[in-house]
Amino acid sequence: MITRRSLVAAALLAVIAGASPNPARAADPVVVGAGDIADCTTDADEATAALLDGIAGTVVTLGDNVYRTGTAAEFRDCYAPTWGRHLARTRPAAGNHDYMTDGAAGYFGYFGASAGDPSRGYYSYDLGTWHVVVLNSNCALVGGCGADSPQAAWLRADLTASAGKSVLAYWHHPRFSSGSHGGSASVQAFWEILYAAGADIVLNGHDHDYERFAPQDPWAQPDARFGIRQFVVGTGGTVLRARASVARNSESFASTHGVLRLTLRPGAYDWSFETISRSTLDRGTGQTHGAPPPRTTRTFRVTSDTYVDQARPNSNFGTRSRLLIDGDTGSGLDRHGYIRATVSGLTGTVDRAYLRLWVTNPTKDGPRVYPTTATWSGKTLTWRNRPAAIGPAASDAGRIPIGTWVKLDVTSIVRGNGRYGFLLRPTSADGLNVASLQSTKPPRLVVETVPSTGG
After folding, report:
1. Taking the complete model, does pTM exceed 0.90, yes or no?
2. Which CATH fold would you assign to the domain 2-287?
3. 86-101 pLDDT per residue, tens
């Protein structure tokens, strides 16, 4: 295997030696790369490495640098003969396959200081007028990725110290994806911190495909003014996968091996996805931006809650410590949850609102949240006298794990001060239980506002 790869690498270098690279101007740094790369069972990594041979600039890897388990031997035999030709100009990110060897020892041993502190695996550097942040989305192995984690604290401080620069960030697991893995909520805090700081671009791997998104905020709302543009580039060499869904704001998708090239200009950037067939599949230009207006966050106590049970249509459950939302409690009968809250003292424009609920029983497919009336009482509500939805669903949750706070978006319902009623209706027979107003972790309504623009 080593001999075959060495011969192929030598042949490719011989062919390319006389070629004229097409680098950007010296004033405009270039980054080029992909994730999900070296695999000794395929030849595609050799083809993507050949693309790197003709593109000057910083090589970035987006995790899962080598398959299958990130051993030192795999880096030596599979990565080194291909992408390893560009080791001196590579700034890597770690993926889950890299951590299949304890402590990602093969990864850190191969890349050395370029990969950052092995106890963290996150770091940053500057390229021209841009600041580049490399994060570690293998959350459980590096102290977490949540808003209160050491990594999040480091990210805030790092971005503060680099204020005024355009920002590019990359790590392995994407927040949004139409691929087989789908988006990962574990990196939500990364997005919220980067968005608040005015970051421009995020690069990820993990799903073995190429996908480009329109600029969006951390909650998947289109945001042409302050949004982050995300690219998924899991096309470095291992086996590709087909599209599994259509994520919101997705603009381009392909299951094709190749590399993403970014030219980082002052105030702007150019992108092109170069395939191993030597064609440009996707290209474009974006403008950078500053940080969005500061947000004011207000948290409101829920004033009443309960659930109703179709199997017990005359019973009230307003004193229970849990809200049960279930699409089939037996014989096709349902349970619906009801929450009421009053919002007051808001100034500015509501930009985001969500119910914050503590999960006591998980679900594979969570509920939809609808607006309903706010005149009911949790002490008297039953299945028979329950109010109906009075508008379309504000959100539709997917998989929700146990022992965590879940945020259910209600922005389309809460538009200012007033009394609001929320109906949580199941979408599957896999029921969700959350703590009620009677528990030690009661529901809350969180509302974020931004300054009004006038007019």
Report:
1. no
2. Purple Acid Phosphatase; chain A, domain 2 (3.60.21)
3. 999 999 999 999 999 9
